[in-house]
Specification:
Length: 249
């Protein structure tokens, strides 16, 4: 943009002026060329930013549509505590958005805009789902008396063995917590930590579990409300001293 304005200003100021020196003309052309290259690079950076932000917004809107039946119509997709930059541009409320798509159609391909989005956009979608329809582990509960244990995902410092409807989780190095990720079944998860409070982080569409839940206590039950997507949530457990992670009864 700066090069264009400079070119326009120069054309007005030099109107009627004859440049006799070839060196001066060549230098002006070279200077203009370098300036144009700099502007093209700046436009590419800006274009890349808006392309990423567009993918982020589409993923968030696709997630919003998944919870349409349960979300507060006054909820704002991007509000506190989200950072103003680079996000905080989806500041309309959910009710207005749903009215718009009912009248004009959806601007997103849900769930296509979730599954094909960059990982940071999928992380943003996971965070939005928990922010606008929060859930957390509740104290108490019990494991299922039969059936399969929750499927195991990535682990760190953890040895996991399935026994009936439960996974027995033991730390490999006793001084550190056992970290293990499990797919949350429709019945939910019952958990016990051997020593101290369990910590839980959630993930669904993103590669990792990054969204923290409130403190979970030493035992409890985690049930995730259903929506229109069949993609399961994953729960990452940090269990001091190890413990059990079971299908809830």
């Amino acid at each position: 943009m700066g090069s264009v304005l400079t070119l326009l200003a120069a054309s007005l100021l030099l109107e009627g002026v004859e440049i006799r020196s070839r060196w001066v003309a060549a230098a002006a052309v070279a200077l203009l060329g370098f300036s144009l290259l700099a502007n093209v690079a700046e436009m590419k950076v800006g274009g890349d930013f808006y392309e990423r932000e567009s993918a982020y917004n589409r993923a968030e809107l696709a997630a919003l549509e998944l919870i349409r039946d349960d979300v507060d119509p006054g909820a704002i997709p991007e509000a506190d505590p989200m950072p103003i930059y680079p996000h905080r541009d989806l500041t309309f409320n959910a009710g207005d958005y749903f009215s718009f798509i009912d009248a004009h159609g959806s601007p997103v391909d849900s769930p296509g805009d979730l599954t094909s989005a960059p990982d940071d956009a999928r992380e943003g979608a996971d965070a939005l789902l928990l922010r606008l329809r929060p859930f957390a582990a509740e104290p108490g509960g019990e494991p299922a008396s039969d059936g399969a244990a929750p499927l195991v995902g990535p682990t760190l410092n953890a040895q996991v063995e399935a026994e009936g409807a439960c996974n027995e989780v033991a730390p490999i190095l006793p001084d550190g917590p056992a970290l293990a990720t499990f797919a949350v079944p429709p019945e939910g998860i019952y958990f016990e930590a051997e020593r101290g409070q369990a910590a839980i982080t959630m993930g669904r569409f993103a590669n990792d579990v990054t969204v923290r839940l409130p403190p979970a206590g030493e035992e409890g039950t985690l049930v995730v409300p259903a929506d229109t997507s069949e993609v399961p949530w994953r729960a990452g457990f940090s269990l001091p001293g190890g413990g059990r992670v079971c299908t809830a009864g």
